[in-house]
């Protein structure tokens, strides 16, 4: 036998499947803390994504079966479902997925041609269009509050009915990031706010465990070489450094960088969203610029912006910079001298 | 000028050279005020009136204006006409005037007005110039009306909301609720909705044009619409 061996044929389908697999631990933790509503929204999103994908492929006269089975639409659906509140009217996730697949993926030319991350476009559309529904997050298990049973969650999602005596405010809460912002606004210090029961050891109770599960999934992807370490590292480092500078300057007003790491969708973004091969740069230097920019912007939008989390808008803003980043970080062709030296050489030639 | 030439002018303005979906001129008001049918049509008609009047008033002096300073002269005349329209609206449609706000005076800077003066009124007699301005303006109004309708239905679930601003109290009951008990889809009302809606309209116009061309070439007329459009699309 001759070496090297190629033991694995990497196809879009296989890679996407591995990413879906890597999301499973986080989904399991999610179900433990927030109930099975997330499974419903993932199912709804998956069905919508596959149906939209098939309809768009048909409209564009592309082969349906190979594209439909490449798992990319499913991944978009799962990422979107994991980014939005699971206890929401059924049409919320359906509208978001519909938009993500049809407008931000197929109108731009389908898989491989979309400049923006489809799941994040879906999120952006929803947060802009339905801000009220997008802020009702389920209170995590273990806070001693009213918890809905499986049937009660289903009834709310599909019929909009809550059990007698329960109000939406009783079963949902503002996210830890939102609570932090509101309490800071009211003049409380960070140390007092973090003493509230909704906060756990690292960040929000429940949310921090989901974030840890994302790290686990990310480690699996790294180990299987589905993603490289550059994007997550640069993103988390930039978020850490930006948050660290503010935290060191004024710890009473700016929460620690670790809190930012394990809050909101930071870990989901670092390992699953920024690493989308279509919408991230191809060069190594470009990857650092892209992810660091996203980390910095995430912090700025979270702390100084009006939205609950900054991942989606930071990702989209950096997505549109990718062609520029790639153009400026393109390494010289092997054997060719670096740009600066080349200039002086050609200058000499001109002189002669 | 013969009847056929006037027909051509109208056809150009309303369809073939439509300012909204073919020339893509005057995008700023198009995108800014097309969040409801009433707003869109009102500004569209105001623009059409200005375009017809400016065509008619610049055409007779076209041979006396020195070429080097024609643009300031044209703009001055357009600005006068816009001011007239603005005062008329202020006097007779005050609430609509308030809603449209800055976009009425901004008709002066709408490039489609100056573009038609340069391309047509500066080279043609009075009547064709006026007809051209009106046709182009009405073409823009039609696109604005469709776009405004799309955005209003998707965004608010209504049609013709605010008609009383233009037509007075009697029109208050004319609002059509297309989707009852609607939550509203804010994206359609916000600027991204205008861009997405306009993109879909341009795609629709291109599709119809390509299909008409195919038919004119004597292609297979039995091909289903979807089939025809997409084959051409991929070929192009």
Oligomerization category of the chains in this entry: heterodimer
How many distinct folded domains of chain A? Answer: 2
Name the helix and strand elements of chain A from N-terminus to C-terminus, one letter apiece: HHHHHHEHHEHHHHHHHHHH
For the residues shown, what is the average pLDDT of chain B? 82
- Quick one: how many beta strands of chain B? 2
Q: How would you sum up the major sheet of chain A?
A: 2 strands, antiparallel
Q: Gyration radius of chain B, to the nearest Å? A: 20 Å
Strand order, main sheet of chain B: write it out: 1-2
Proportion of beta-strand residues of chain B:
under 5%
Shape of chain A: globular
Helix percentage of chain B: 55-70%
Distance between the termini of chain B: 37 Å
% residues in beta strands of chain A: under 5%
Which regions of chain B are unreliable across 5 or more consecutive residues at pLDDT < 50?
Answer: 221-236
Determine the number of helices of chain B (DSSP H or I, runs of at least 4 residues): 11
Number of domains of chain B: 2
- Derived structural class of chain A: mainly alpha
């Amino acid at each position: 036998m001759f070496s090297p061996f190629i033991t694995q044929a990497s196809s879009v389908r296989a890679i996407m499947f591995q990413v879906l697999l890597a999301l499973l631990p986080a989904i399991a933790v999610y179900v433990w803390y927030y109930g099975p509503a997330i499974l419903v929204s993932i199912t709804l999103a998956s069905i919508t994504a596959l149906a939209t994908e098939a309809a768009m492929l048909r409209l564009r006269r592309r082969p349906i079966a190979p594209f439909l089975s490449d798992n990319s639409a499913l991944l978009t659906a799962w990422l979107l479902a994991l980014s939005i509140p699971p206890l929401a009217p059924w049409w919320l996730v359906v509208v978001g997925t519909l938009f993500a697949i049809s407008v931000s993926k197929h109108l731009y030319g389908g898989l491989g041609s979309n400049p923006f991350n489809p799941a994040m476009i879906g999120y952006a559309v929803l947060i802009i269009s339905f801000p009220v529904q997008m802020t009702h997050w389920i209170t995590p298990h273990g806070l001693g509050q009213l918890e809905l049973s499986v049937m009660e969650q289903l009834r709310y999602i599909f019929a909009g009915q809550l059990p007698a005596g329960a109000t939406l405010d009783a079963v949902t809460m503002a996210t830890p990031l939102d609570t932090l912002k509101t309490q800071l606004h009211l003049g409380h210090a960070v140390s007092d706010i973090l003493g509230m029961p909704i906060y756990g050891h690292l960040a929000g109770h429940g949310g921090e465990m989901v974030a840890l599960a994302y790290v686990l999934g990310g480690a699996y992807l790294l180990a299987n070489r589905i993603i490289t370490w550059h994007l997550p590292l640069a993103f988390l480092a930039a978020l850490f450094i930006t948050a660290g500078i503010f935290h060191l300057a004024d710890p009473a007003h700016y929460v620690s960088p670790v809190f930012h790491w394990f809050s909101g969708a930071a870990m989901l973004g670092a390992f699953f969203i920024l690493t989308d091969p279509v919408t991230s740069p191809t060069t190594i230097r470009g990857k650092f610029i892209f992810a660091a920019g996203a980390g910095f912007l995430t912090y700025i939008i979270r702390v100084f912006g009006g939205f609950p989390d900054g991942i989606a808008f930071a990702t989209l803003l950096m997505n549109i910079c990718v062609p520029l980043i790639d153009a400026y970080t393109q390494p010289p062709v092997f054997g060719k001298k670096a740009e600066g030296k080349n200039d002086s050489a050609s200058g000499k030639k001109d002189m002669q | 000028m013969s009847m056929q030439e006037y027909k051509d002018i109208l056809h150009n303005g309303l369809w073939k050279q439509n300012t909204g979906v073919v020339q893509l001129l005057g995008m700023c008001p198009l995108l800014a005020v097309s969040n409801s049918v009433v707003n869109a049509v009102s500004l569209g008609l105001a623009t059409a009136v200005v375009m017809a009047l400016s065509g008619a008033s610049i055409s007779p002096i076209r041979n006396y204006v020195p070429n080097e300073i024609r643009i300031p002269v044209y703009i001055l005349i357009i600005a006068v006409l816009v001011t007239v329209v603005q005062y008329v609206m202020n006097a007779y449609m005050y609430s609509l005037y308030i809603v449209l706000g800055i976009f009425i005076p901004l008709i002066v800077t709408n490039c489609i007005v100056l573009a038609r003066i340069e391309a047509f009124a500066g080279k043609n007699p009075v009547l064709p110039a006026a007809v051209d301005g009106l046709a182009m303006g009405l073409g823009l109004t039609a696109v604005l009306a469709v776009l405004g309708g799309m955005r209003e239905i998707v965004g608010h679930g209504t049609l013709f909301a605010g008609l009383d601003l233009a037509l007075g109290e009697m029109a208050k009951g004319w609002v059509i609720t297309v989707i009852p008990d609607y939550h509203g889809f804010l994206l359609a009302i916000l600027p991204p909705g205008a861009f997405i809606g306009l993109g879909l309209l341009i795609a629709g116009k291109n599709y119809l044009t390509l299909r008409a061309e195919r038919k004119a070439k004597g292609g297979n007329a039995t091909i289903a619409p979807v089939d025809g459009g997409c084959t051409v699309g991929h070929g192009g």
